[in-house]
């Protein structure tokens, strides 16, 4: 079957690589979400304890981010659609003043709960420096999925489904 020892070694190496990949490609244990505090512009307070049993979609955004603007409608629609199934959407504006955000929201109203960086430790925890960033926390308080950058409505729905909301 093998005409040279190098063919045998190559085959063995390939089998070992495939075996190693399959061992590490199995289901991963979900990582617990970092402990957080958040207060919305309307004064609602959220913590890990207060959202237990709910699915949380965190959206990190800015007023100057074109992709954030384009996807805001998807986020708000998903918020409206799955609110009664236990979805909480926290749209965390990163590093902008309350005045700037309120002026923006006057022109571009949102239905999702808005949180400012000054009112939460979430942006630092998730190293939100590129926008948008989405994080889903499942009902058990674990990170179910993340998405860096815009991906459109279907990608956002798939991400929310990873937390147990909507069709999978």
Written description of the protein model:
Mean pLDDT is 87; it is low at 8-27. The protein has a seven-stranded mixed beta sheet. It starts with a helix and ends in a 6-residue tail after the last helix. Helix 3 packs across helix 6 (152-162). The chain is 39% helix and 24% strand. It is of the alpha/beta class and 168 residues long.
**How is the biggest beta sheet arranged?**
7 strands, mixed
The third-level CATH topology is Glutaredoxin
At the fourth CATH level, what is the homologous superfamily? Glutaredoxin
**Total of domains:** 1
Instruction: Specify the overall morphology.
Output: globular
Return the string of H and E elements. Answer: HEEHEHEHEHEEH
Tell me the structural class: alpha/beta
* Proportion in helices: 25-40%
Task: Give Rg in angstroms.
Answer: 21 Å
Ordered list of secondary-structure elements with their pairings:
Layout: H1 5-24, E1 37-40, E2 45-47, H2 48-51, E3 55-61, H3 66-82, E4 87-93, H4 98-107, E5 113-120, H5 122-125, E6 133-137, E7 143-148, H6 152-162
Parallel strand pairs: 3-4, 4-5
Antiparallel strand pairs: 1-2, 1-5, 3-6, 6-7
Helix pairs in contact: 3-6
Features:
alpha/beta, Glutaredoxin, 7-stranded mixed β-sheet, 6 helices
Can I get a quick summary?
With 168 residues, the protein is of the alpha/beta class. It has helices at 5-24, 48-51, 66-82, 98-107, 122-125, 152-162, and strands at 37-40, 45-47, 55-61, 87-93, 113-120, 133-137, 143-148.
């Amino acid at each position: 079957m093998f005409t040279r020892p190098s063919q045998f070694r190559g085959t063995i190496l390939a089998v070992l690589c495939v075996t190693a990949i399959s061992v590490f490609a199995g289901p991963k244990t979900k990582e617990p979400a970092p402990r957080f505090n958040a207060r919305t512009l309307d004064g609602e307070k959220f913590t890990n304890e207060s959202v237990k049993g709910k699915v949380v979609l965190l959206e990190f955004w800015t007023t100057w981010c074109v992709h954030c603007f384009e996807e805001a409608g998807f986020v708000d629609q998903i918020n409206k659609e799955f609110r009664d199934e236990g979805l909480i959407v926290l749209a965390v504006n990163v590093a902008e003043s309350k005045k700037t955000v309120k002026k923006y929201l006057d022109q571009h109203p949102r239905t999702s709960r808005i949180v400012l960086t000054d009112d939460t430790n979430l942006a630092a925890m998730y190293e939100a420096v590129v926008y948008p960033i989405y994080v889903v926390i499942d009902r058990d308080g674990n990170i179910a999925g993340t998405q860096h950058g815009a991906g459109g409505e279907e990608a956002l729905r798939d991400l929310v489904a990873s937390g147990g909301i909507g069709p999978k």
